[in-house]
Amino acid sequence: MSRGLILRLAGPLQSWGETAAFPLRDTAAVPTRSALIGMFAAAQGRTREQALAPYPELPGTPSHHDLAFTIRIDRPGTVHRDYQTAGGGRPRNQGLRRADGGYRSQDKSTSVTFRDYLAGAVFTLAVQGPAPLLQHIADTLAEPRFAPYLGRRNCPPDEPLIIHPDIPDPQAALRTAVPLTLARPPAPGTTHIPITFIHEHPPTPEDMPHRESPSHPCDFTSHTRTHLLRPLWQTTEDLPAALYAGPRPITALTDYILGAAPCP
């Protein structure tokens, strides 16, 4: 499972819910496995009920459970909290319902919610798995049935989303070749920059996970949605300062995509 594709997840806002409840919709610090698989399934036109089903039409009958992600945090972004209300000012028979099916009284008809977003974040993602499934993901992201978004529908991704559809060693590419979108340029004379990575598998066999994320999807169906804990490993690695993409990252990214930059 060495080959893979590389995606760049960037946009004005992102939100990767991890432990969200209705009054408070949180965001994880990095894209979650559940949201990424959901994005791939939506691009393929799959429903919630079909999202995790195998692909009998592809060799080996792969599924999204066969995928593994490595996340490079180019820019962690800043958490912003959006204040929202629902139900206020509507007629009583159109307002918020109670658990018994009736309607709330007018003085309790407004529900206050808070939604967290990451502003200005940039993540570069290596996706590895069975080659036929990776090709299908790349093809459908390039021509999606439903538009991809970064955790929530109001968070569209910047271009380019697909950095490389098929590369021999995507993890090595993250470390040595794919341009870095940084919040500020490296200091003069700097040769290497510490960059954080999040791994779904231990970088070395003896490493213990740094945390567990409740984002491994078992069922996307609305009324039976369930997730399991998934261990994550975090490393900080010194990457060449020469990977800095400059104040206009689109130029360096375009050069890399078109082959002006070397691939490992």
Structural account:
- There is one protein chain.
- This protein is an alpha+beta fold and 264 residues long.
- Helices cover 15% and strands 31% of the residues.
- Strand 10 (211-219) and strand 11 (226-240) form a beta hairpin.
- The model is unreliable at 260-264 (pLDDT under 50).
Produce the secondary structure layout.
Blueprint: E1 4-10, E2 13-14, E3 24-25, H1 33-43, E4 68-75, E5 78-86, E6 111-119, E7 122-128, H2 131-142, E8 162-167, H3 170-176, E9 192-199, E10 211-219, E11 226-240, H4 249-257
Parallel strand pairs: 3-6
Antiparallel strand pairs: 1-7, 1-8, 2-6, 4-7, 4-9, 5-6, 9-11, 10-11
Low-pLDDT ranges: 260-264
- Helix % is 10-25%
Query: How far apart are the termini?
Result: 16 Å
Q: Please report the number of helical segments.
A: 4
Shape: globular
Q: Would you list the SSEs in sequence order as H and E? A: EEEHEEEEHEHEEEH
Biggest sheet, spatial arrangement of strands: 8-1-7-4-9-11-10
**Overall pLDDT level:** 90
The Rg value, from CA coordinates, equals 20 Å
Please describe the biggest sheet, giving its number of strands, its sense, and whether it closes into a barrel.
7 strands, antiparallel
Total DSSP E strands: 11
Class per helix and strand makeup:
alpha+beta
Percent in strands: 25-35%
